[in-house]
Design brief:
CATH architecture of the largest domain: Sandwich
Distance between the termini: 80 Å
Order of helices and strands: HEEEEHEEEEEEEEEEEEEEEH
Strand content: over 45%
Strand order of the largest sheet: 1-2-7-6-5
Number of domains: 2
InterPro entries: Ig-like_dom_sf, Ig-like_fold
Number of helices: 3
Number of strands: 19
Shape: elongated
Radius of gyration: 28 Å
Keywords: Signal
Largest sheet: 5 strands, antiparallel
Helix content: 10-25%
C-alpha cells in the first residue's frame, strides 16, 4: 500500500512538473493601417530544449517552427483572398528555451467575425512537455472621432446648410444626427472598405435649415459582440462654414456617392 501511495505521489509530482514546465503567453493589438499584430512568447525550463512551435488559425494548423530544421529564425508569408498572414518566429536564447512568434494579420476584405488563434509549444525528449494558449483576435476597431464639414447653399437663405459627417471603424460605424434633443434622418449615407486603413469608412449628409441656435451633433458608434462603442461626436458650428455650394453641385455630390 505504501508503494502504491508513493507511486501516486511520484505521478502527481510528475504532472505538476509538466504543468509548470513551459510558460506561453499570447498578446495582440491593432496596428493602424497594418492590421492585428499577435505575439506568442514562450519560456521552457532550464533543463529543456524547444522541439516545435505550432500555430493554428481557426483550428487549422498553418505554421510549424522547429529549430533543428529552421535554425534560430523562420519567416513566411501566407496570402489568401481575404487576408495576408506574415509570421516571424525567432529563438532568443540557447536551445530556443525562450523565443517569440510574431503574426501580422492584414485583412484584405472585411472580416465576417472574430478569428481564433492558438500557439502550441513543445519541448524535446524525454519529457515532451507541451503548453498551448488560445487567443481570440476580435474583429473590432473603435470608431474614429467624427469629422464634420459644412457648406451653405447659394440658392437659398444663409440659414440653409449642408453638412457632411465621416468616421471609420470595424465593423462599419453608424452615424446618427441630432438637432437639439431630436434625432433626425440623414439625407444620404454611404460606406466603403479601404484596403489602406483596413477599415470601413462611412459618411453621412444632412441638409439643415437653421431656425435657432440648436446644437447639431453627428455621433459615430459601432456594435460588436452586443457591445455599443461610441466615438467622439462632432458638433456643427456656424463659424466653421467652408464655402458656398450650389444646388447643382450638391446633386452632383450625391450622384457621385451613389455610384461608389
Amino acid at each position: 500500500m505504501a508503494f502504491k501511495m508513493g507511486q501516486v505521489t511520484v505521478i502527481m509530482a510528475f504532472m505538476v512538473t509538466i504543468a509548470r514546465a513551459i510558460d506561453v503567453n499570447v498578446t495582440g493589438e491593432w496596428e493602424p493601417e497594418r492590421g492585428w499584430e499577435v505575439a506568442c512568447s514562450w519560456q521552457t525550463l532550464p533543463n529543456d530544449t524547444l522541439q516545435s512551435v505550432r500555430l493554428y488559425f481557426n483550428d487549422q494548423q498553418f505554421m510549424v517552427y522547429r529549430p533543428e530544421l529552421h535554425g534560430r529564425r523562420v519567416y513566411d508569408v501566407l496570402r489568401g483572398t481575404d487576408k495576408v498572414m506574415t509570421v516571424n518566429c525567432t529563438a532568443l536564447t540557447y536551445r530556443a528555451q525562450e523565443g517569440q512568434c510574431l503574426l501580422l494579420l492584414e485583412p484584405i476584405q472585411p472580416p465576417d467575425g472574430n478569428y481564433n488563434y492558438s500557439c502550441e509549444v513543445s519541448g524535446e525528449r524525454p519529457w515532451f512537455r507541451i503548453a498551448k494558449k488560445d487567443y481570440v483576435i476580435r474583429a473590432f476597431v473603435p470608431p474614429s472621432d467624427a469629422t464634420l464639414t459644412s457648406k451653405q447653399q447659394d440658392d437659398s437663405s444663409l440659414n440653409r446648410v449642408v453638412m457632411n459627417c465621416s468616421s471609420a471603424g470595424l465593423p462599419a460605424p453608424t452615424l446618427s444626427w441630432t438637432v437639439g434633443d431630436d434625432k433626425v434622418q440623414a439625407d444620404f449615407s454611404g460606406r466603403s472598405w479601404s484596403q489602406t486603413s483596413k477599415l470601413w469608412h462611412v459618411w453621412s449628409y444632412l441638409s439643415y435649415t437653421r431656425n435657432d441656435d440648436s446644437q447639431v451633433l453627428c455621433s459615430p458608434e459601432v456594435t460588436s459582440d452586443d457591445e455599443i462603442v461610441r466615438g467622439k461626436a462632432a458638433e456643427y458650428n456656424s463659424a466653421n462654414n467652408l464655402s458656398l455650394i450650389g444646388a447643382a453641385e450638391l446633386t452632383a455630390i450625391v450622384l457621385t456617392l451613389n455610384n461608389v
